[in-house]
Amino acid sequence: MGDDKVVLLDFWPSSYGMRVRIALAEKGIKYEAREENLVDKSALLQEMNPVHKMIPVLIHNGKPISESLVIVHYIDEVWNHKSPLLPSEPYQLSQARFWADYIDKKIYSIGKRVWMGTKWEDQEVAKKELVECLKTLEGELGDKLYFGGDKFGFLDLALIPFTTWFYTYETFGSFSIENECPKLMVWATRCMQKQSVSNSLPDPHKVYDFALQLKHNC
Amino acid sequence: MAEENRVTLHGFWASPYSKRVELALKFKGIPFEFVEEDLRNKSSQLLKHNPIHKKVPVLLHNGKPIVDSHIILEYIDETWKYGPKLLPQDPYKRAQVRFWVGFLQQSYETLLLVCKTCGEAQEKATKELHEKFEVLEGMLKEFFPDGNPCVESDDVGFLGIVMISLFGAHKVQSEAIGVKVIDPEKTPFVFYWINALIELAVVKDSAPPHDKTVAFLHAFRSTALKSVAP
Q: One Gene Ontology cellular component annotation (chain B) (predicted)?
């Protein structure tokens, strides 16, 4: 593995990019991080992801892999000698994938409606939906330390990046996720104690400033 | 069927998601019981085993539910080690299959738009659909560099199964919607591949009756058009 060349095309506030950063950190993989300007996409990004031209893209020895969860699967399968991310038992794996898929279907798009929303009524509807989703996830967590059980794993990795956007959702939506889902916030704090996570996630206040700027530009 | 390997699939005859699980089980030679769901009156079993989405397909393996068709297919491949592999062994090739399955799904969503619209909106959606197939054409040429997309029944794989489930009925879809879904001149590789896939015995045996599918698509389209009519 010493001769591996790993490059990550990324964008700092992207929750999807954060997932890959965490996976690489968990595995101790050295890589070159390239920050993309999504308004002016690099020739490399367009070449490596010609279909969607989106980040994150992992380039391993010149070969590109796109879509955050596809990349995480790839990382776990290639660097399989340490820190397994995915459960090995097929049924547990199917459950982890189900919940990761649930997060993908819901959190980003509903969250966006909360912070980008311009009509109060639409924001209120989105807020209610977001809280419902987070409570469902909180239910799935139950009394476990992590979604995977005793160890940080795939599902924790899939969700934790979105917590950097919670301050943004809360500020634009005027509500408190801590009040609605206290157990989830305890889990989030526990995850942030891991270096692989805290080194990969931006400051939520920086994310808020970015969102504010984006909203003003629209 | 041995008690220790009881497999039940809750599905719906016209659902491509249900169809792909059915095909995966058949390609692998896994015996299973099929429960046809009435989507207007879902069974208590379905609602119990998929409380979050309340949708088909749901696979029950020894009573334990697995939902979401792409998750079910990976579960099948990981659990039943015999029979044709649905995913390649090589991690990079697996990543490519997973990526392109996602792309096929997006193409299907464009097809649904073609089905639900008319006039200019339908023309725009059709153009987008054909563009997506052109991208797929490029992929197929790389995936199958020797020129022939593989169509042995033991090598159809995840990608082939998803393609069959979404576009296997492309001729029927074209007939019902009044628009050519796959253009053989623009995308000859895609056209050849899907037509070869649907000739496989397993696929032919699982295909729903032609007239039933046409009637279903007509009803689907007319309901959709009515809901946007001024």
A: cytosol
Helix B188-197 to helix B119-143 angle (10° resolution) is 80
User: What's the confidence (pLDDT) of residue B112?
Assistant: 94
Q: pLDDT, tens digit, for every residue of B138-189?
A: 988 887 777 667 687 778 999 999 999 999 999 999 999 989 999 999 999 9
Which residue in chain A is spatially nearest to B76 when comparing CA positions? Answer: A90
Cβ atoms within 10 A of the Cβ of A163, count?
22
Amino acid type, B96: Q
Chain A residues near residue B79 by CB distance under 8 angstroms: 90
d(CA B102, CA B96): 10
What residue in B sits closest to A50 (Cα-Cα)?
B135
Q: What angle do CA A134, A138, A142 make, to 5 degrees?
A: 170
Statement: the pTM of the whole predicted model exceeds 0.90:
yes
Give the per-residue pLDDT at B1. Answer: 43
pLDDT in tens, B30-56: 999 999 999 999 999 999 999 999 999
Chain B residue with the nearest C-alpha to that of A51: B135
Tell me if B92 and A71 make a contact (CB, 8 A cut-off): no
d(CA B214, CA B132): 24
| Contacting B residues, span 135-154, partner chain A, CB-CB under 8 Å | 135
Q: How confident is the model at residue B65 (pLDDT cuts 50, 70, 90)?
A: very high
Integer-rounded Cα Rg, in Å, for chain B is 18
In terms of DSSP bridges, do strands B33-36 and B7-11 run parallel, antiparallel, or are they unpaired? Answer: parallel
Chain-chain contact of B94 with A60 (C-beta, under 8 angstroms): no
The pLDDT of residue B229 is 60
In angstroms, what separates the C-alpha of A79 from chain B's closest C-alpha? 10
Residue B37: both structure tokens together: 């769901």
Q: CA B217, CA B178: separation in Å to the nearest integer?
A: 11
